[in-house]
Amino acid sequence: MGTNRLLDGVATSERTFSANFTEDLNGHTVQISTLPAGINVSGAQHYLTGDTANFSAPATVVIGGIPYSFSAFKQEGVVVSVNANFAKPFSTSDPASLEYVVEYLPTNPFPLIRSAVANYTSPIPAVTDLRFSITFDRSIRLTPATTIQITNPSAVRRWYLPRAHFPRPGWDWTRSLFE
Questions:
Q1: Are residues 98 and 118 in the same domain?
Q2: Which of 3, 10, 44, 155 could hold 32 in an S-S bridge, CB 3.0 to 4.6 Å?
Protein backbone atom coordinates (compact mmCIF):
# COMPACT_ATOMS: atom_id res chain seq x y z
CA MET A 1 0.00 0.00 0.00
CA GLY A 2 2.98 2.29 0.23
CA THR A 3 5.86 3.51 2.37
CA ASN A 4 4.12 6.49 3.95
CA ARG A 5 3.63 6.58 7.69
CA LEU A 6 -0.06 7.37 7.24
CA LEU A 7 -2.37 4.92 5.56
CA ASP A 8 -5.29 6.69 3.99
CA GLY A 9 -8.13 4.76 2.46
CA VAL A 10 -11.63 3.41 2.87
CA ALA A 11 -12.13 -0.26 3.67
CA THR A 12 -15.27 -1.64 2.03
CA SER A 13 -14.62 -5.18 3.19
CA GLU A 14 -12.42 -7.04 5.67
CA ARG A 15 -8.73 -6.44 5.00
CA THR A 16 -5.47 -7.60 6.60
CA PHE A 17 -2.51 -5.27 6.70
CA SER A 18 1.10 -6.00 7.66
CA ALA A 19 3.50 -3.35 8.78
CA ASN A 20 7.25 -3.92 8.49
CA PHE A 21 9.33 -1.58 10.60
CA THR A 22 13.02 -0.87 10.36
CA GLU A 23 15.10 1.13 12.78
CA ASP A 24 15.90 4.64 11.69
CA LEU A 25 19.04 4.55 13.82
CA ASN A 26 21.32 1.63 13.17
CA GLY A 27 24.74 3.18 13.74
CA HIS A 28 26.66 5.30 16.23
CA THR A 29 29.82 7.29 15.63
CA VAL A 30 32.02 7.82 18.67
CA GLN A 31 34.63 10.55 18.92
CA ILE A 32 37.05 10.86 21.82
CA SER A 33 39.03 13.88 22.97
CA THR A 34 41.27 14.22 26.01
CA LEU A 35 42.10 16.88 28.57
CA PRO A 36 44.97 17.58 28.28
CA ALA A 37 44.94 17.00 24.52
CA GLY A 38 46.96 14.42 22.66
CA ILE A 39 46.56 11.32 24.83
CA ASN A 40 45.94 8.10 22.90
CA VAL A 41 42.60 6.54 23.92
CA SER A 42 41.08 3.59 22.07
CA GLY A 43 37.43 3.13 21.14
CA ALA A 44 36.65 5.99 18.74
CA GLN A 45 34.97 4.49 15.66
CA HIS A 46 31.58 3.70 14.11
CA TYR A 47 29.44 1.06 15.87
CA LEU A 48 26.22 -0.64 14.81
CA THR A 49 23.22 -0.81 17.10
CA GLY A 50 23.70 -3.93 19.21
CA ASP A 51 27.52 -3.67 19.16
CA THR A 52 29.50 -3.21 22.35
CA ALA A 53 32.29 -0.64 22.36
CA ASN A 54 35.36 -1.19 24.52
CA PHE A 55 37.06 2.02 25.59
CA SER A 56 40.56 2.06 27.04
CA ALA A 57 42.63 4.95 28.36
CA PRO A 58 46.07 4.80 29.99
CA ALA A 59 45.94 5.09 33.78
CA THR A 60 48.85 7.55 33.85
CA VAL A 61 50.70 9.65 31.27
CA VAL A 62 53.54 12.13 31.33
CA ILE A 63 53.21 15.25 29.19
CA GLY A 64 55.94 17.86 29.17
CA GLY A 65 57.48 16.27 32.25
CA ILE A 66 54.23 16.54 34.22
CA PRO A 67 52.58 13.28 35.33
CA TYR A 68 48.80 13.00 34.89
CA SER A 69 46.40 10.38 36.28
CA PHE A 70 43.18 9.21 34.64
CA SER A 71 40.10 10.83 36.20
CA ALA A 72 36.98 9.99 34.16
CA PHE A 73 35.24 9.45 30.84
CA LYS A 74 32.61 12.19 30.42
CA GLN A 75 29.82 12.77 27.93
CA GLU A 76 28.43 16.32 27.80
CA GLY A 77 30.10 17.05 31.15
CA VAL A 78 28.49 14.07 32.90
CA VAL A 79 30.72 11.29 34.25
CA VAL A 80 30.11 8.07 32.32
CA SER A 81 32.88 6.00 33.90
CA VAL A 82 35.62 6.50 36.47
CA ASN A 83 37.35 3.36 35.18
CA ALA A 84 40.07 3.72 32.54
CA ASN A 85 38.58 0.69 30.74
CA PHE A 86 34.87 0.26 30.23
CA ALA A 87 32.40 -1.31 27.81
CA LYS A 88 29.28 0.31 26.36
CA PRO A 89 26.55 -1.57 24.46
CA PHE A 90 24.75 0.54 21.85
CA SER A 91 20.98 0.64 21.43
CA THR A 92 18.51 2.70 19.46
CA SER A 93 18.11 4.99 22.46
CA ASP A 94 21.73 6.16 22.05
CA PRO A 95 22.34 9.16 19.79
CA ALA A 96 23.88 8.67 16.34
CA SER A 97 26.90 10.73 17.34
CA LEU A 98 28.60 10.58 20.74
CA GLU A 99 31.63 12.41 22.03
CA TYR A 100 33.51 11.35 25.12
CA VAL A 101 36.01 13.58 26.85
CA VAL A 102 38.64 11.71 28.84
CA GLU A 103 39.89 13.86 31.69
CA TYR A 104 43.25 13.56 33.39
CA LEU A 105 44.37 15.38 36.52
CA PRO A 106 47.95 16.48 37.18
CA THR A 107 49.70 14.39 39.79
CA ASN A 108 52.15 15.85 42.25
CA PRO A 109 55.57 14.81 40.90
CA PHE A 110 56.96 14.57 44.42
CA PRO A 111 56.15 11.69 46.77
CA LEU A 112 53.84 12.70 49.56
CA ILE A 113 53.86 11.31 53.06
CA ARG A 114 50.50 9.70 53.85
CA SER A 115 51.32 9.26 57.48
CA ALA A 116 54.23 9.62 59.86
CA VAL A 117 54.30 8.28 63.38
CA ALA A 118 57.10 8.47 65.94
CA ASN A 119 57.49 6.53 69.14
CA TYR A 120 57.68 9.87 70.99
CA THR A 121 55.45 12.90 70.68
CA SER A 122 56.66 16.45 70.19
CA PRO A 123 58.73 17.82 71.75
CA ILE A 124 60.96 14.78 71.44
CA PRO A 125 63.22 14.32 74.46
CA ALA A 126 66.93 13.58 74.21
CA VAL A 127 66.73 9.82 73.65
CA THR A 128 68.71 7.12 71.86
CA ASP A 129 65.71 5.11 70.61
CA LEU A 130 63.75 7.59 68.45
CA ARG A 131 61.88 5.72 65.69
CA PHE A 132 59.69 6.91 62.82
CA SER A 133 57.23 4.99 60.68
CA ILE A 134 56.51 6.74 57.38
CA THR A 135 53.96 5.72 54.71
CA PHE A 136 54.34 7.26 51.24
CA ASP A 137 51.67 7.67 48.56
CA ARG A 138 53.72 5.82 45.92
CA SER A 139 56.91 3.96 45.18
CA ILE A 140 60.07 5.92 45.84
CA ARG A 141 62.74 6.09 43.13
CA LEU A 142 66.14 4.61 43.86
CA THR A 143 67.94 7.74 42.70
CA PRO A 144 68.23 10.36 43.84
CA ALA A 145 67.98 9.00 47.37
CA THR A 146 65.09 10.37 49.37
CA THR A 147 66.33 12.53 52.23
CA ILE A 148 64.45 12.97 55.45
CA GLN A 149 65.67 15.90 57.45
CA ILE A 150 64.97 16.24 61.15
CA THR A 151 65.71 19.61 62.67
CA ASN A 152 65.66 21.31 66.01
CA PRO A 153 67.22 24.59 67.17
CA SER A 154 70.59 23.01 67.95
CA ALA A 155 71.10 20.14 65.50
CA VAL A 156 70.27 18.68 62.10
CA ARG A 157 70.30 14.98 61.38
CA ARG A 158 69.79 13.54 57.86
CA TRP A 159 69.34 10.00 56.80
CA TYR A 160 68.60 8.28 53.49
CA LEU A 161 66.22 5.53 52.50
CA PRO A 162 68.44 2.47 52.07
CA ARG A 163 67.92 0.47 48.86
CA ALA A 164 67.37 -2.70 50.86
CA HIS A 165 64.33 -1.05 52.47
CA PHE A 166 63.00 0.53 49.27
CA PRO A 167 59.33 1.34 50.04
CA ARG A 168 56.44 0.45 47.75
CA PRO A 169 53.03 2.18 47.61
CA GLY A 170 51.19 1.78 50.87
CA TRP A 171 54.16 0.16 52.62
CA ASP A 172 55.59 1.51 55.83
CA TRP A 173 59.24 2.36 56.19
CA THR A 174 60.66 2.32 59.67
CA ARG A 175 64.21 3.11 60.66
CA SER A 176 65.94 4.13 63.82
CA LEU A 177 67.53 7.55 63.74
CA PHE A 178 70.67 6.03 65.21
CA GLU A 179 71.13 3.02 62.89
A1: no
A2: 44
